[in-house]
Automatic annotation (TrEMBL):
Organism: Telluria antibiotica
Protein name in the entry: Uncharacterized protein
Stretches with biased composition (Low complexity): 341-350
Skewed-composition ranges (Basic and acidic residues): 238-254, 352-361
Chain spans, region Disordered: 238-261, 341-361
Amino acid sequence: MQAFIYQYHKKISAPRPLQINDGNIAFFTRPVMETSEFLSSDDGKVWQLKFFINSAFEKTLFVDFNAPGDVPALGRASWYDNKHKASNDERLIPAASVFLRDSDTLTLARAEELTANRTLLADRDGFAYFSGDSDQFKRIVLCQALAIAYVQVITTCMADTTRSVLNNRTDETIALYENILRFNAAYYFTLPVLVGRHELFAAWRVLCDHYHLKVLSQELTQQLSDVAALLSGQREKQQAEDEAKRRAEEDAHKQALAAQAAREEKALAEQRALEKQALAAQKAHEDKADKRRGHMLSFAGLFLSIAGLFLTGMSLLSLLQLTPTQFFDNASQWKRWMSTSTAKKTAGSSQKLDEGPKPKG
């Protein structure tokens, strides 16, 4: 019996839960069982296996117990019936060597004895199993599929992380880092097989060493540690830059506030100067108005004085029983009298000057 593990395969028609020897799969630990799904075709010749369900690294693999197809297989396995006698393994090893290596160079020296009459030989991309029945062979094939799924996830994680770091994609690196940590915590187990299943537990350890799962896991862990250090350095650098930027913004804000305060103080001073000028102009205007009012009041006082004199005169005329017409007539007579008197005096003076002094004797 041979089995080939593929990444892709035609869809299974009428799939049903996988059973081996009419029994459900029950040799994996509970976390593995809760994140896996095992289906089989109706004839049991093709399996559809899902691992790491609901994770960023969910894997679906197919196991085909028919003849190998044209697509390269991820893994292969072959069962050799030794009739429950380990002594028969020697005559079966050449066929196993050809299956695994296409040569007869393999020997049983590299094989692992799982029980007294059961032997497992892992080489290259597969294994050969020598026993008296095929049921345990199928269970080991299922373990092999899980080991291959682990290898795919780990190598993909390392490649993706390397690429994101080289391309300076910090956000992508952080996302990968978180997903890988989540995968390591919830989906990757060094011993996914129940310890009580002695033969399968031993078989898993052989497969684990063959696929270098421990070494790959250590490399991934070291890479995660380096990435964490890198991200920490970048975070510290970013924090320093953010702090410098914050301080620069604070300084700029303070300078802007100081400039604003200076502008406001200048504007206030200008406003005060304008107000002072306005007050001075208003005072000058008021002084001018006061002066004008003073002149007007003086004129009014003069007018009132004249009016008072006129009224006083009129009152005196009234007391002298003079009418205004009489007053003006008398005034005209006094004026003519004053003019005549003045003319006589002038004429007298002129005559005296003409006669001059008389000569003596």
